[in-house]
Structures are given as C-alpha cells and as structure tokens.
Amino acid sequence: MRKPAALASLALAMFAAPVSAERGVTEIRWSALKAEGRLKGGEVVPPGGGVAYESLKVTNPDASPRVVPLVVIDRPGIEGPRYAIRGDVRGEGIEGRAYLEMWSFFPGGGRYFSRTLAGTGPMASLGGTFSFRAFVLPFSAEPGMKPERLEVNVAFPGRGTVTLGPLRLVELGPGDDPLLPSGAWLTSSQIGLVGGIGGGVLGLLGALAGTLASRGKARSLVFAVLRGMLAVGIASLAALALGWWRGQPGAVLFLFFLVGAICSAVPASLLASVRRRYEELELRRMKALDAR
Fold this sequence. Notes:
Layout: H1 2-15, E1 23-28, H2 30-36, E2 43-45, E3 55-60, E4 66-74, E5 82-105, E6 111-115, E7 126-140, E8 149-156, E9 160-164, E10 167-171, H3 188-215, H4 219-245, H5 250-291
Antiparallel strand pairs: 1-10, 2-3, 3-9, 4-8, 5-6, 5-7, 5-8, 5-9, 5-10
Helix pairs in contact: 1-4, 3-4, 3-5, 4-5
C-alpha cells in the first residue's frame, strides 16, 4: 500500500505546479494609462463595491453601433508568434452581441484581428447582464512575425455597458492553450491524453484483477492493483479539491473527478467480494485436502 500511495502523492505534488510556458509581457492598468494620456475611452473606476481592482467602464448610451478604442500598445515586446490579451469583463444591459477585439499590426502593413464572438468560454460574445468573467484575445502569427502595435477596442451593436479589469499581455509557449487560464495544471491536449490513456489503463487493470480473482490466482497482485487504484482515486479527489480552491478550469476539475470517482468506487466495491472469493477458494482447497 505504501508504494501506490507514495506514487499518488508524487503525482498530486506534480499537478500542483502549473505546466504552462506562458510569459507575462506587460500589465495594463487604466489609471496609469489615464495619467499618461494614453487612455482612448471609458471611465476609470477605483476598487470598491466587492471588486478588489480598478476597472474601466465603457458605455454606449444609444442604439447606434459603436466601436470604442481603449488602448494602443506600441512596440509591445512580443518575441514569439503566439500571444494573447487576458483580463476580466462584466456586462450590464448589453443589447445584441457586443465583443472585445485586438488588432495586431505587423511591419509591411499586415493587420489582423481577434474577437470575442464565440458562443461559450473565454472568447464568448458579450450580451445582457453578467458578472465578471475571464476573457482572452489570442493570436497566432507566422514564425518570425512580431507585431509592432496592438490595439484593443470594444464594439457595441447597441446600448450597453462593458466593464474591464486590468489587462495582461502574455506570450504563449508552443503547447499553451489560450482558452485555458494561465496557471492551468494541464493543457487541453494533456487532458485528452491523460483521459484516454488513463481510461484504457484503468480498464485493463480492472479486467486483470477481475479475471485473476475469479480464478483464485495471484492474490497479492490483485489486492495490490485494487489498493493502488484506491490510492490514485483518493489522490485525484484531493487534487479535485485543491484544484477547485486554486480556480482550475472545469475541464481539469472534471478529469480529476472522473478519475477519483472511478478509482475510489470500483476498488471499494470489489475489495470485500474479492476477499470473500479468495477465502471461499481457500476453504474449498482445504476441504479437498482433508477429503483425501
């Protein structure tokens, strides 16, 4: 039991550290922009009312569509081809589908945009009234391309108010998923890989333990497998609780929940019956020996 528990504890410690290679480039604070005369639009709101950070309130008072420039970042210092603007956004009475956008300008005249126009997730469009949620505006350029200027705007199709917290410009590593928040323990590809391989391994171990137990063979191995699965299940549930407390994304939490539930419930339900099975087979063996 000690070895599986130690391995499970090691895995839990490894997941406690982010695997992202994301690098912070600069943080955009609205009051600093205003003091420098670089704030293009909106009203700076100091912390308060349950919000721990300053924010920028942008309102479109009439039904006419309007694009409000927020900030221009000259020479942003991006070295790699993948980068993103991250932050938190809140909406009040937004008519239609508003969105945030980032324009990337490259030497030679190339210009490209990223917009929050998805149906769900951190790139979801802005509509109605909602509390602060995370958003991301990512962009992937060709290798060697470096933006010389970034512009961030908010576009309204009609009336509404958008409030933004401080923004962060980050550079993404090759394996980073911009749709996952920075500090996520696993990327999307790793979640799929762990889920696929983990499910296959658990299925094989369960089948092996069931087959050996039904034949009354390899008692020590069967109990080691079941106890090892139980240790992994307990560690996964502990990681689920830690991940929830640290604000890990739902996909990561669901993976730990699934692994924890399966690895805890299956061995717990089988240990007693498997023990009885071996005891019954041992009793039959002893009776057969006595009958000789």
